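Hi support team,

I've been running sequence recovery on a batch of backbones for a student project. Most finish fine, but this one hangs at about 90% for roughly twenty minutes before it completes. I'm not sure whether the input is malformed or the queue is just slow. I've pasted the C-alpha cells below so you can try to reproduce it. Let me know if you need the job ID as well.

Thanks,
M.K.
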C-alpha cells in the first residue's frame, strides 16, 4: 500500500481547492474567484485499492500584511514541512511573478518530492504557449514530475493520481476507507456561508468577513437541521452591504448557503443568519482565535 500526505500549494486563484474537490470526487473546500478564499488547512482523504492519499489544501501565498495573513502563511509553511510530497498548482495561462519566485524558494527549503501541476490547460489552446509556460516553471522549480490538467474540465485527473501514488512512500492507511474529510460539519457549514458571501459581495467586503456557527442541531424527528450563524465584518458600511436593501443581499447569501449545506449534509436545513461588526478583527489575536484562526494551534 502507498500512503502519505500531499500538500497543495500555489498563489491565490490557480484552482487548488477546485482541483482537490475533483481529486476526491466531492466538494469539501470552498471556491471563489477572490484571493484569501482558503484560510485554513483543509484536509481530505482519497482511498482506493492502491492506498491512501491525504490531500492538504493550503491558503494561497499572498503576502497580506495583517495577523490573519501571518496566520495563513504559517499554515502553509507548516503544511509543506509535514507533507510527504508537494503539489505545486500553477495556472497555465499565467506568467511568473514575485509570488511564484517565493513559492519556488519555499519548495527548495522543504526538500520534498515535487509534482508541478499545470492547471487550466483548457485556457491555453495553443500548444506552443502551453509549452513555453511549462518550460518557465520547470526552470524555476525543477520538479520530479509534471502533469498538465484542467480541474474544471476534469482533464488528466486520473493521470495526476497515478503520479502522486508513484511518489508516495509505502505505509498504512491513516484513515478509515470511508473517510473523506476530518472537517467537522459545523466548520464546513461556516465555510459554505462564507463562500456565498465571497461570490455575491463586492471586492472590498469579503476579505474582512468571517463566519461563526453558533448552533447546528438536528431535530428529534430527523426532518430538519437548524443552523444559526453570524457573518462577522469590520465596518458598519460593510454590514449594510451584507444585509442589502430590505435585507435582500443577506437573503441571497442565506438561500445559496442553505442549498449548499443541504447538498453536503443530505438533510433539510433551516438557516438563520445575523451580521455583526468586529472592528479590525483580522489584527486582533483574541478574535482571530474565536473565529478559528489560532496561531498557537499550528505551532504545536
Amino acid at each position: 500500500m502507498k500512503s502519505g500526505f500531499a500538500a497543495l500549494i500555489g498563489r491565490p486563484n490557480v484552482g487548488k481547492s477546485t482541483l482537490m474537490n475533483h481529486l476526491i470526487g466531492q466538494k469539501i473546500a470552498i471556491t471563489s474567484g477572490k484571493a484569501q478564499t482558503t484560510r485554513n488547512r483543509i484536509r481530505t482523504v482519497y482511498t482506493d485499492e492502491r492506498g491512501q492519499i491525504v490531500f492538504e489544501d493550503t491558503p494561497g501565498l499572498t503576502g497580506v500584511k495583517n495577523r490573519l495573513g501571518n496566520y495563513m502563511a504559517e499554515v502553509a509553511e507548516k503544511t509543506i514541512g509535514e507533507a510527504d510530497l508537494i503539489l505545486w498548482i500553477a495556472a497555465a495561462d499565467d506568467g511568473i511573478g514575485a509570488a511564484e519566485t517565493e513559492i519556488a524558494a519555499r519548495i527548495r527549503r522543504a526538500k520534498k518530492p515535487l509534482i508541478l501541476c499545470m492547471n487550466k490547460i483548457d485556457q491555453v489552446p495553443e500548444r506552443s504557449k502551453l509549452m513555453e509556460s511549462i518550460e518557465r516553471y520547470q526552470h524555476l522549480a525543477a520538479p520530479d514530475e509534471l502533469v498538465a490538467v484542467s480541474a474544471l474540465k476534469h482533464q488528466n485527473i486520473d493521470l495526476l493520481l497515478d503520479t502522486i501514488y508513484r511518489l508516495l512512500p509505502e505505509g498504512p492507511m491513516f484513515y478509515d476507507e470511508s473517510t473523506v474529510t476530518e472537517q467537522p460539519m459545523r466548520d464546513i457549514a461556516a465555510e459554505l456561508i462564507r463562500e456565498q458571501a465571497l461570490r455575491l459581495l463586492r471586492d472590498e467586503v469579503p476579505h474582512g468577513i468571517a463566519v461563526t456557527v453558533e448552533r447546528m442541531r438536528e431535530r428529534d424527528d430527523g426532518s430538519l437541521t437548524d443552523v444559526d450563524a453570524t457573518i462577522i465584518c469590520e465596518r458598519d458600511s460593510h454590514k449594510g452591504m451584507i444585509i442589502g436593501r430590505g435585507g435582500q443581499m443577506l437573503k441571497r447569501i442565506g438561500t445559496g448557503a442553505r442549498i449548499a449545506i443541504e447538498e453536503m449534509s443530505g438533510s433539510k436545513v433551516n438557516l438563520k443568519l445575523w451580521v455583526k461588526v468586529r472592528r479590525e478583527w483580522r489584527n486582533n489575536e483574541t478574535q482571530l482565535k474565536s473565529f478559528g484562526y489560532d496561531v498557537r494551534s499550528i505551532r504545536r
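--
Follow-up from support: It reproduced on our side and the slowdown came from queue contention, not your input. The two ends are 29 Å apart (CA to CA). No action needed from you.
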